[in-house]
C-alpha cells in the first residue's frame, strides 16, 4: 500500500450500547473497547447480537441507547460514509459489470482522489491480496476465494482507520478458509488498521484474534485473549462454545465437587455460589486408562467407551459416565495410545490444575456451535 498509510488504526469505544427492535432487545447495554490496531473478534451463536453490534459501529443500524465513539469522537449519529470505515461482507458485494481493478477503484472515485494516485493505490491493494495479475477480469471469472480477496482490497484501498468484517469466510470451503485466515492475519499485521471481525466459528476466532468478545443473548459473556478464553472460561457457556469441553456434573461441597461417586478437585476459577456445578476439562487434558483397576491420580472417574474416532493425527474417544452423560477424550496419535473398544470399562483422569469449577444453570440448554452464519 501507499507509503503514507497510517501505522495504527483507531480506537472504538462502546458504552451502554443498546439496540431494540420493538419489544426485542438484540443488543443489551454492552460496554466494549477496540484498541488501536487491534484484531478484535465478536464471536457467538446465531442471534447473539454480534452482527447487530458490528452494524451499529458501521452506522448501518441506528443505536437505541448508549454512546459510540471512534478515536474519542462521537459517531453515534454520524452517517456511515463519514465514519472512515471499511467493510467486508460474507457475499462479496462486488459490482458484476466492473473489472477487478474498477471494483477496487470505486471507493477512491467516491472520495474524489486523483486518477494517477488512484491507479497506484489500486495496484498496491491488489498486490497486497495477490491479485495484480487479475486486474482486468470480471468477478464472474474469479473463484469465491479470489472474489473475497477483491472485496478485501476494495475495503482497505483508501486506508480506513477501522475495517469491519462480517463472516467474510462463511461461504468458502474449509481448506480455502484456512488459507485466507492466514492471509487476513498477515494483512492486519502489515496495515496496523483496527479490525473488528464477526464470526460464529470458534477456531477462526482463536486463530485470528488479539482478543475475542463472546456474545450470547445480546450480551457479552467474556472478553479476553484466545488463551484466556480457552484456559480460563468464566462460565459454562464460554467453556462449551469456545472449544470442546468435557463436563463432570456434581454438587459443590466446600472446595471440592462430589460427582459420579467420586470427590473431584480443581484449581481454576472462583468457586461459584451455586451448589450445582460442573468440573470442566478440555478433552486433550484427560487421560484414558483401560481396565477395571482404578489409577492413582488426583481425579479419577470410571466410564464405558461408546466409540472412538480416528483423525490421523489424533483420536477422539467418547465415554459414557454412570449418570448417562458423555465426555470426550482427545489424544495425539504420537502418544502411546491404550487400545480401547466399544463397551470397554475405562478410567478417566485429569490434573486439578487443568480443571475449572463452573456453575450449572439447569434452565439453560448447552450451547451448540451453529453451522449457519446468520445473526
UniProtKB/TrEMBL annotation:
SUPFAM superfamilies: MOP-like, P-loop containing nucleoside triphosphate hydrolases. Its EC number is 7.6.2.11. It is an enzyme of class 7 (translocase). One of its GO terms (molecular function) is ATP binding. It comes from the Bacteria. It is a peripheral membrane protein. It is found in: Cell inner membrane. Its main location: membrane. GO terms for cellular component: ATP-binding cassette (ABC) transporter complex. It catalyses: alpha,alpha-trehalose(out) + ATP + H2O = alpha,alpha-trehalose(in) + ADP + phosphate + H(+); ATP + H2O + polyamine-[polyamine-binding protein]Side 1 = ADP + phosphate + polyamineSide 2 + [polyamine-binding protein]Side 1. Keywords: ATP-binding, Cell membrane, Membrane, Nucleotide-binding, Translocase, Transport. It holds the Pfam family TOBE_2. Monomer. Homodimerizes in the presence of ATP. The complex is composed of two ATP-binding proteins (SugC), two transmembrane proteins (SugA and SugB) and a solute-binding protein (LpqY). Belongs to the ABC transporter superfamily. Spermidine/putrescine importer (TC 3.A.1.11.1) family. PANTHER family: SPERMIDINE/PUTRESCINE IMPORT ATP-BINDING PROTEIN POTA (PTHR42781), SPERMIDINE_PUTRESCINE IMPORT ATP-BINDING PROTEIN POTA (PTHR42781:SF4). This is Spermidine/putrescine import ATP-binding protein PotA. It comes from Mycolicibacterium arabiense.
Amino acid at each position: 500500500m501507499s507509503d503514507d498509510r497510517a501505522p495504527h488504526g483507531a480506537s472504538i469505544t462502546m458504552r451502554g450500547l443498546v439496540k431494540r427492535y420493538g419489544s426485542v432487545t438484540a443488543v443489551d447495554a454492552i460496554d466494549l473497547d477496540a484498541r488501536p490496531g487491534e484484531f478484535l473478534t465478536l464471536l457467538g451463536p446465531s442471534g447473539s447480537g454480534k452482527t447487530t453490534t458490528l452494524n451499529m459501529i458501521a452506522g448501518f443500524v441506528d443505536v437505541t441507547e448508549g454512546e459510540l465513539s471512534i478515536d474519542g469522537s462521537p459517531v453515534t449519529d454520524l452517517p456511515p460514509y463519514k465514519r472512515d470505515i471499511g467493510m467486508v461482507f460474507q457475499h462479496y458485494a462486488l459490482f458484476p459489470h466492473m473489472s477487478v481493478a474498477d471494483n477496487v477503484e470505486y471507493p477512491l472515485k467516491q472520495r474524489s482522489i486523483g486518477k494517477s494516485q488512484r491507479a497506484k493505490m489500486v495496484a498496491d491493494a491488489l498486490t497486497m491480496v495477490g491479485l495484480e495479475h487479475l486486474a482486468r477480469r470480471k468477478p464472474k471469472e474469479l473463484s469465491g476465494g479470489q472474489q473475497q480477496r477483491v472485496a478485501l482490497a476494495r475495503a482497505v484501498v483508501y486506508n480506513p482507520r477501522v475495517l469491519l468484517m462480517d463472516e467474510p469466510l462463511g461461504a468458502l470451503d474449509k481448506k480455502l478458509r484456512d488459507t485466507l485466515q492466514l492471509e487476513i492475519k498477515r494483512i492486519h499485521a502489515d496495515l496496523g488498521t483496527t479490525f473488528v471481525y464477526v464470526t460464529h466459528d470458534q477456531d477462526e476466532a482463536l486463530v485470528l484474534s488479539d482478543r475475542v468478545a463472546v456474545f450470547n443473548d445480546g450480551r457479552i459473556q467474556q472478553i479476553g485473549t484466545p488463551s484466556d478464553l480457552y484456559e480460563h472460561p468464566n462460565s459454562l457457556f464460554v467453556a462449551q462454545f469456545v472449544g470442546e469441553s468435557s463436563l463432570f456434573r456434581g454438587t459443590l461441597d466446600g472446595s471440592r465437587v462430589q460427582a459420579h461417586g467420586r470427590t473431584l478437585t480443581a484449581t481454576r476459577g472462583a468457586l461459584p455460589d451455586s451448589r450445582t456445578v460442573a468440573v470442566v476439562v478440555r478433552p486433550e487434558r484427560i487421560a484414558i486408562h483401560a481396565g477395571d483397576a482404578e489409577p492413582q491420580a488426583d481425579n479419577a472417574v470410571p466410564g464405558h467407551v461408546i466409540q472412538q474416532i480416528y483423525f490421523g493425527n489424533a483420536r477422539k474417544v467418547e465415554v459414557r459416565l454412570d449418570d448417562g452423560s458423555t465426555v470426550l477424550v482427545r489424544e495425539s496419535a504420537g502418544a502411546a495410545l491404550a487400545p480401547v473398544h466399544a463397551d470397554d470399562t475405562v478410567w478417566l483422569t485429569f490434573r486439578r490444575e487443568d480443571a475449572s469449577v463452573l456453575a450449572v444453570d439447569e434452565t439453560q440448554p448447552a450451547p451448540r456451535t451453529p453451522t449457519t452464519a446468520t445473526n
